Amino acid sequence: MKKIIATLLVLVMVLGLVACGGGGDTDSDAALTVGVVQLVEHVALDAATQGFQDALNAEMGEGAVNIKVQNAQGDTNTCATIVNSFVSEGVDLIMANATPALQAAVAATVDIPILGTSVTEYGVALGIEGFDGLVGGNVSGTSDLAPLDQQAAMLVEIFPDAQNIGLLYCSSEANSQYQIDVVKAELEALGKTCATYAFSDSNDLAAVATTAVENSDVIYVPTDNTVAANTGIIDNIARPAQVPVIAGEEGICGGCGVATLSISYYDLGYQTGVMAAQILKGEADIAEMEIAYAPQFTKKYNADIAAELGVEIPADYIVIE
């Protein structure tokens, strides 16, 4: 009996040593954790998040990064709640998809690296005077800013006889205001008369859109998350009234627009994922990473709406699939 007990004790000790060794190996191979906070579900932001995840897995290896994706369902307060939970967990990096998500992340931590995407103008979003392309500190990312002067020129190219242009946007999105200001100046320089129509959220979008449509030959909507999540509201008002919409990005154009000069949000998210991998691998210092911009822009159009409204689209535009 003593020999049996002694043998069992030896086995227990051996198993204990093996268990400790296994635990050490698991810790050394443990996946990094990245928290993704996305403002709302719509085509553009969804594509950016998917591109980000694909890039991280390609650059770091499948399973090397635990990617936690949380959606705020359009609520800025929920963005803050999500980000604070990521900070409490001690994630290794935060990806903030859209301006309110970025603002919430920046308010929550100065230590964890933060990469934004689908953010139009970082200087406006973060209140940086004289922004030169480098945020510094623990923040960098990618911008979805398309050439606004070219968007204005595109509107005039397709609708040369249109005189009254309605600029429809969400007043609670700082980057939407920025785009509207630039496009308005460009259109006025091209001889157009512009009126702005600002709504505060989706609750008053229909009323404001109705007023805009009643007083405009063409509607312009910028890259705007509230618009992107509610294109059906605008389409149900503008299309029956035979008033065309020029959109700031492809997802919006696919829902309610005639044409757009747009980027690929998937590619933008992928670019952000590559930046994240460089940071996580220690190959780049986020404090020295300048904001990256989409490398190319494409003229696209919505074939169904263009045909229904009888809009003639130039030959160099590509159909939105």
Brief descriptors of the model:
single chain, 321 residues, alpha/beta, seven-stranded mixed β-sheet, six-stranded parallel β-sheet, 13 helices, 20% strand
Describe the fold and architecture.
The longest helix is centred in the first third of the chain and has 27 residues, at 2-28. The protein is 48% helix and 20% strand. It is α/β, with parallel strands linked by helices and 321 residues long. Helix 2 links the parallel strand 1 and strand 2 (65-71). The protein has helices at residues 2-28, 43-60, 76-89, 99-108, 122-126, 148-158, 174-189, 205-214, 225-228, 231-238, 250-256, 265-280, 303-309, and strands spanning 32-38, 65-71, 93-97, 114-119, 139-143, 164-170, 193-199, 218-221, 245-247, 259-262, 292-293, 298-301, 318-319. Helix 10 crosses helix 11 (250-256). The termini are far apart. Residues 1-28 have low confidence and may be disordered. The strands form two sheets. Strands 7-6-8-9-10-12-13 form a seven-stranded mixed beta sheet, sandwiched between helices. The protein has 13 helices and 13 strands.
